Every structure is written in C-alpha cells, then in structure tokens.
Amino acid sequence: MARSRAVSIHTPSELAQARTAGELAASVLAMIAPHVRPGVTTNELDRLCHDYITGPLGAIAANVGYGGFPKTICASPNHVICHGIPNDRPLVDGDILNIDVAVIKDGWFGDTSRMYLVGEPNKQARRLVRNAFDAMCAGIEAVKPGATLGDVGYAIQTVAAQAGFSVVRDYCGHGIGQVYHDAPEVRHYGRRGEGLVLEPGMLFTIEPMINAGKATSALLADGWTVVTKDRSLSAQWEHMVAVTETGFDILTPWPDGNGDYPAIA
Question: For position 2, what pLDDT does the model report?
Fold first, then answer.
C-alpha cells in the first residue's frame, strides 16, 4: 500500500507556515460568530469577513475569484450542503448556517468551517449539527501514522449512521498547503484498512457534510450552490489536520475555544 507521489510530505517549518494560515482562518470564524443572528444577511457577513481578512489579518481572501467564485465566504444555510454564495436573504430564527472560509498568508492556505445556530433552531437541527461535529472529531481522531484514509472515512460514517443520518459522497476533504485543493482526496466514508496509508507530514482537511435525510445532492443553476436533493437539513464542520509522529495536529484551532462542544482528544 504505497503512498502516491502526488501527496506532499511537509517539513516542520512548512507545517508551521500552514498553521499560521490556518489559525488566521479560524480567527475569522471566531470574529464573525457574534454577528450571526436573525435579520443579518449572508452578504453582510461576507463583507465583515472580507474586511477582517484583508485589514487586520493582512491576508488574502482565497475564495474571491477562485474558479469564478464571487465572494469571500461560502455561506450554506439549512438545506444547502456547501458552496453557498452569500446573498441578501436575512437569516431567520431557527436557521442553521455553515460558514467556510479560506485565507492565504505568505503563500500558504488556511481553510476551515464551522456551524452557527441562528436564534433557537429546533431539536432535530441541533442534533444534526452536533452529530456532524462528532463525526468530524471521529475522523480526526482516527488520524495517525499507519492508519488509512479508509479508517478516517469509516469512523465518520459510523457516527453519522448510528444517529440515522447520511454522509454526502459527492464532495470530500482535500490536501492543502501551498495549493488550495491538493492530493489526497479525503472521503468521509470508507472501509477500515483501505486507501492511502498516512505518514507524518501529510496535511489535509477533514470536512464531513452530514444530511438529516438522504445523501444525494443537487447543484443549483448558479454553478456553485449544492443542496440536499430531498431538501433535508445539512451540517458541516472542517479542520485542517497534519499527521504527526504519534497522531494528529489540528492547524485550525478555534481561538475562542470549543464552547459547548467537547475538545478533540
């Protein structure tokens, strides 16, 4: 089970640069948290994030113009799985929202996302959001030298399936570093012992998209926004993860802490 030559092995100094970018991206998600409330538009949130990235952080908003994407953040509410384009629809009480942000600092990419509760979502929505977080954690905790990406995907899908939820298969995590979307593909489902064998120095995102209903998705006419085909709710979290000599290292830790969510072991 040889490693593909296309998968980069990063040096400690390179990972330190990736960590700097990752921490900046995570700080954007912390900054925007108090602004996510009923009545605000995702366009307003996008503007705040853009100004923060290009101003105080002194970084580049990686998503702007990437493949033609027009905005700084991907804002994906409710049944939007991923890549939602910010717009002028006000958020309403009970919405759930994923914000996905990427920055470039000194040529290195930082990429992360998290869920936000708008007002008071119902019990099912909260349960989905928490399960998506737990699924991401399970995937991260499976990362160590000698493990496989199949182990990571298996851990994620097991947590989702035990709650009666489904894992989106059309989109996946990815290698990252000086390239935004690099090898390997990190699928959020799989079989133990299968796939790429992990080695220290590998760096990738783990970002499972978990649906309350079926796993199938549909792409809207704007060419970006991906929604659940059955219009069920969807939730996603994302961290950048490096493989270390003994396990894993999260390069996008939240500067404001985990709040109501448990620490990742």
Answer: 40
